[in-house]
Amino acid sequence: MTINEFRERINVVLYNSKDRVISTLRILNLFVSASALVVLASYYGFHHESETAELLVTLVKSTFFFYVIQYVTKILYEFHPIQFIRKTWFEALVMSILVVEGLSDLLTGQLFIGRFIQSLGFDSISGFYTIFIQGYFFTVVVAELVRGGRILPRIRLNPAVIFIISFLGIITAGTVLLMLPEMTTAKGGMNALDALFTSTSASCVTGLMVEDASHFFTFKGHVVLLLLFQLGGLNLITFGSFLVLASRFGLGIRQHDVIEDFVNRDNFNASSGLLGKVIAWCIGIELVGAVAVQLCWGSSLGNFGLGKQIFYSVFHAISAFNNAGITLFKGGLTHGSLVENWAIHWIVTLLVFFGALGMVAIFDLFDPSRLRERMAQPWKRIGFATKVALYFSLGLVFFGAVSFWFLEKDGTLAGMSVFGQLTTSVFQSTTRTSGFNTVNIGAVGIPMQFIFLILMFIGASSSSTGGGIKTSTFAVVLADVWRTIRGLDHVQLFQRTIPDILRSRAYSVLLFFIVGNTLSVFLLTMTESHILEMPDRGVMDLLFEEVSAFGTVGLSTGITPMLSPWGKLILILSMFIGRVGTLTVAFALGGRLKGRHIKYPEGHTMVG
């Protein structure tokens, strides 16, 4: 009997039990991964005696054994095991790492990767890669259950509601983690409201902070912040993959319109493997940015060890690309060691710009297949959505930079070299979508603060990590105004006619943003009367803070730590609505829409 014949007989014997065993393992995987994450949160979040800590570590290590057994079982049930391993190469790689770690632990009593990470200078991060492994398996099993087609069809929720719940889950988990004693230097841990504010700010990639991130949070707290704005930045885009998947199980195409920040419908529905592609490109860009930052620190980090330097590089690269604006330096990039490090400023500027440009535009501009196609067929141009994102983003950067130089050359730019003034002007204009700043925003004159309000209100592009009404909304409204002035029959932009539905959505977003900001500022004038009573503060500070929160920007004149509990709650709601999208919230609250094919007689009234 040959090996293949023996293998075939084994498969025939195992075939009847395959679905039952694999399904059981998936359920067990979900509980094992979730339990391991809870154990890890307890291990890293609290101070434990040595015996308790050793017990918790043993529990986590035991889950690795389960994952290996599960993967081997899957291989046994496959008719073509080699092809299965090739198809699941990443999971096979993780399993290989777990086997190596298990053997290393049995033979030496230490984890091999943990020792390697410590050798780089990471004294506290040696066990954090286990969080990635547990999170990976938890995510994989959820994806497998969804892909199986047994769970998703039973979910009768509006996609907008599911999207909002996903963000609420990230924010809630972040709040609980930040309240743990080991995450901050404060005795007893961070209070619930401040933890909720910080978690919302990080998850919604806003960057407004009630406490100084550099000194208030421990290294473990910094890792939590990093995970929050990485997950928050990716969640908006990767949720598009879920909608593509959901459409295969009967969700109407009409429901895709509830997320105004997603890619346009043509690219959206045609994208296969969007989730993996987005994650791969985002991580790739962040890695390139981290390497560039690492090479340009110079003397800015003083006597930091290599491990801490690498962590700072990764932290700031991810923060910049996700437009989070959170830094590990007191005062941000205005810190004395960074204020004239122009190389770092330009790297952050580029990362923020590409993060705010949007993945649709990045794919269209830089995807190798698109580049080869345009080289082979020169008559093909970049897509309409890419033109809107790229040209309007560049236009806003140019407008903001010129305005900043003209209005601040005798103010915050005074005393800088010509190159420094250019760098600072471009930096502050580009980072209108993030909370990074290289000058004291509170010292910026009122005229430039007013222009900042406009830039923050417009914000970034669709399918990006930034907020605001989006450049696409601004472009459509501007084109419609131009149509009205010129008396044209149709709204036209870049030799394309804008459909009525897009105009309607653009004006809806604009109106929601205006009403949302106006109502929030009105409430802040009542809850933050103590700030208005200060001699150097006024309504402009509240307006700036609110627009920054609603646009998920993170720039502040310095009043964030002064906010009352009610003021913090108002900004928390503003950051959340601004992140998930105004139309998303509207559709979620509106419930299921019923189509009505009724047209009433036209009405006419004077306008203007």
Furnish the topology, listing elements before pairings.
Layout: H1 3-45, H2 50-77, H3 81-87, H4 89-108, H5 112-119, H6 129-147, H7 159-178, H8 192-203, H9 213-216, H10 219-247, H11 265-270, H12 274-296, H13 306-321, H14 342-357, H15 359-366, H16 368-376, H17 384-408, H18 418-430, H19 446-458, H20 471-486, E1 492-493, E2 496-497, H21 500-527, H22 529-532, H23 539-550, H24 565-580, H25 582-590
Antiparallel strand pairs: 1-2
Helix pairs in contact: 1-2, 1-6, 2-4, 3-4, 7-8, 7-10, 7-25, 8-10, 8-24, 10-12, 12-13, 12-14, 13-14, 14-18, 15-17, 17-18, 17-19, 19-23, 20-21, 21-23, 21-24, 23-24
Short note summarizing the structure:
With 608 residues, the protein is mainly alpha-helical. Helices cover 66% and strands 1% of the residues. 39% of the residues are buried.
Question: Can you walk through the features of this model?
Answer:
It contains 25 helices and 2 strands. The protein is an all-alpha fold and 608 residues long. The protein has a two-stranded antiparallel ribbon. Helix 8 packs across helix 10. It starts with a helix and ends in an 18-residue tail after the last helix.
